[in-house]
From TrEMBL:
Residues 28-41, 57-74, 85-95 have a biased composition (Low complexity). It comes from the Bacteria. Residues 28-95 are annotated as: Disordered. This is Transglycosylase SLT domain-containing protein. It comes from Planomonospora corallina. The lineage of its organism: Bacteria, Bacillati, Actinomycetota, Actinomycetes, Streptosporangiales. Residues 207-294 form the Transglycosylase SLT domain.
Length: 338
């Protein structure tokens, strides 16, 4: 963030899984005169958008150290997954529009059922998601990332999707594509610290608590954390110093963190809600999110994901299982997940 103007520049540096963590808040036009959170673009797509004013490339955007990745570069040369089997973490994504549409339709339906089962028979407040949810969500994420990078394939695939599914697929692909425009592939990898996120319903409880306190919709807060750190999976600070699951710059945290710990998930969510509220939310979400990260592509992506969760809470549980990717000049690498 520019100390002279209090405003920042887009920080989508690591939309790594979205990117690895978009570093974030920057001074906002209408908010208190403190530095915005200043996070780094590290979205869970590892697309690495460009960092906001105060942060610049986030750790994810910098590239992953070969030895730290959990999966090899994405490939599309293997045999597609059988209809009844759970997809392998690196299963090939069909490049034929008709086959890809069928695969996405099947995967989306199976993922919805898997999430319903997890919520009704499992316990999202403890531990991580069951294998079917993890693998189906990863396959869906990888397919969306492919479509985001190939607009022609995307348009031909949309035309073959069921009418009820097309808007959802298009929204997610569009959000990822916007974040990817902010990413700069890195040639020299850096080490990233990643870890398992807090349980899904523990995070949901924090988002809803912050909504009650500051009036900022929980879906918007969840979408910000999704883009910033893939729900806390990315633990590395940005190279500009942005920290925590919501990626705050120290000065901004001092102003909006209410005395909490920037690395504590509950405190970070409350701080983000406080900052967004001071910047215009819930009345002016676009203005508030732009203050958080000076990029309209970032704003659009966050709101697209938030609307998806608002329409169907199962989308939250699917997004929760999206993994961290990093974009390098040699291709994408997945840093988390199976």
């Amino acid at each position: 963030m520019d100390a002279r103007t209090g405003r920042g520049t887009p920080v989508v540096a690591s939309i790594v899984g979205l990117a690895v963590a978009l570093s974030g808040c920057t001074g906002s036009p209408g908010a208190a005169s403190a530095t915005a959170p200043g996070r780094t673009a590290q979205s869970a797509q590892v697309t690495a958008p460009v960092p906001a004013p105060e942060r610049q490339a986030t750790s994810a955007a910098t590239g992953a150290e070969p030895g730290t990745t959990a999966a090899a570069t994405e490939t599309a040369h293997r045999t597609p997954v059988p209809s009844e089997a759970l997809p392998d973490p690196d299963a090939a994504i069909p490049r034929d529009p008709a086959r890809l549409a069928r695969s996405l339709t099947e995967t989306s339906e199976r993922l919805r059922r898997a999430v319903d089962e997890w919520r009704s028979e499992g316990d999202p407040s403890r531990g991580q998601a069951p294998e079917p949810v993890v693998l189906l969500a990863l396959y869906q994420q990888r397919a969306y990332r492919l479509l985001a990078r190939d607009p022609r394939l995307a348009s031909r695939t949309y035309a073959r999707l069921p009418r009820a599914l097309e808007p959802s697929v298009k929204a997610d692909v569009t959000a990822i594509r916007k974040l990817l425009t902010l990413v700069h592939p890195v040639s020299r990898p850096a080490r990233f610290r990643v870890k398992e996120p807090k349980p899904a319903d523990v995070l949901l409880g924090h988002f809803r608590h912050a909504e009650r306190r500051f009036g900022v919709e929980w879906e918007v807060l969840a979408a910000v954390m999704l883009v910033e750190t893939k729900f806390g999976r990315v633990r590395s600070p940005s190279h500009t110093g942005a920290q925590g699951p919501m990626q705050f710059m120290p000065r901004t945290w001092e102003a909006y963190g209410m005395g909490g710990d920037v690395h504590d998930t509950r405190d970070a969510v409350l701080g983000a809600a406080n900052y967004l509220h001071a910047s215009g939310a819930p009345r002016h979400y676009r203005r508030a999110l732009y203050a958080y990260n000076h990029s309209w592509a970032y704003v659009d992506a966050v709101l697209l994901h938030a609307r998806q969760m608002k329409r169907d809470i199962r989308k939250y549980y699917a997004y929760y299982n999206w993994q961290v990717f990093v974009v390098t000049t040699r291709g994408e690498r997945r840093l988390t997940g199976p």
